[in-house]
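Q&A log
Question type: sequence-to-structure
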Amino acid sequence: MTSEVPFRNSLLFRLLVTSVLISLVSIGATAWLTVRGTTVAIEQERGQVVADYATIQDTLEGFAATHRDWNGVERTVLDLSRSTGRTIILTTRARKVIAASRRSAAERLPLNESAVIDPLHVAPSTDQGVGRAEQVSRIDPRAVGPFRLPAEERANLRRIARGEVSCLYGRTGVRAQIVEEASGRPALRAPRALGEFIPACESKGLLLPTPTEATALAELTGLVRGCAERNHVRLPEPLTITMDFQVDGDDSAESSAAVDDCVEEGRREQLAAYVAPAALLFVASPPSAATAVFDLSPAGTLRVLASTGLVLAATIAVTAVIAIRLVRPLRALTNAARAPSGRHLRIPVTAKDETGYLAAALNDLSERRERTDEQRRVMVSDIAHELRTPLTNIRGWLDAAQDGLAEPDSALLTSLQEEADLLQHIVDDLQVLAAADAGTLRLRPRELDLREVIEQTMSAHQATAHAGGVETAVHAPHGLSIHADPVRLRQILGNLLSNAIRHTPPDGRVTLSARRVAGAVAIEVKDTGSGIRHEDLPRVFDRFWRAERSRSRRTGGSGLGLSIVRQLVRAHGGDVSVASRPHVETVFLVRLPR
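Response status: OK
Response body:
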């Protein structure tokens, strides 16, 4: 296979194509951003218009609420026009000009007014929530009329308020503030976190109406009674109107609404002589010359094309440089991977980018391959050693019998049969492990009585245990069922039992027990044998591994039993673990799903 890659398949070509696409997308994105920016600017302008209109309307309503007529409003209109940049015209209901920021604009009024300035009929606030607009007074709170306090009463109430502030701070530690309402009445306000409160420290002086307010309230009461008579509304007796213009003693929802309407009507009658008459407000934006957003003339088109070409060329050049820098280390990786020596060469990591990560990953892969090859060689050597021993014994006895050195009697045949059985056992174990590695190990699970399986397996190893002087015991509750392959389950328990009996000295004890755990069944094989050192525990389930460093078969076994146990347990969806205290106790724990 040639090392030269066609240009159309090379990384450089693909990066160039990608850069062109990116450039086109960036140009389109720039156009979209321009349009989007223009749209946002228009929306911001609209928001500014709404804010300006609200400021103008609120300022003029405040003027009307605090003046008996529109005299002197011209200066307010001019100030609003300068601050907002809008043309403002104020007229009577009959469209007679009261004040205008530009006299020329007053000659041609728009067809529809922008708003009606009437402090006794202001628009309901939008922050009151849906369904509450009808319950909120539509009289501008700045319209106080006869409730405006004279200087003497203001001074007296402020003195009482200062005393309340000192008293509250001394008793509660709350530092209140004195704010003055539109009528000149001082009120106490707590910090925002505590909300409002009613002063109730030394006296109720701030809650009682002053003589001026009492007179105004008496006048309002008479107006409310007149409204009630005209509209046949039942009023509570005695009729008491509080300082916040609420009627005490009326708990009927229907009559309460009618009474509130009369209070509102009475307030309008009372305030009519103290506020300016309703007026029409006209607000317009000043005329401005239209400015072209885009210039699509030939010169402008050429500038756009030149800018686009420059961006495209710069992108291609930068991409080419980056592609070359990327291709060079990739070629070095390719050459290292194709080294003819067949050795696993280590690739130097010269960068901390994707290429460097790739080199590090290849080095790691090479190391794992070396370890795998070493494990494969060791495994082949172990298999050869395990198979050579029984084969050597069988061939030696057969040669001796053929040469007449051994009599082919029953003892010889029994010995040959044992060696053949050992050989078959090793081959069967290797076949099980090969099937597990290949994923072809088949299980035939069914519902089993686990205690019965445990007792059968222990009975099969009873003779071996008694021959070695090892005591055995079984602990499993009745009715403990499990869904498993009976043959493979007995193979798991048999391998663990044979391993425990083989490593337990005379007078030792091997216990096979089972119990229910959360969502599973736990099976324990416990022995009091020589145990396993702590540093050897991670290798217990490795193939052909033995605790003895020598390859003698003093304790028997092929070194495959525990590996088979782990594969069969995993095939059932469980897990197996081991814990050991040398010369005290070793416990193999198998957890299988129920």
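Response note: The radius of gyration is 50 Å.
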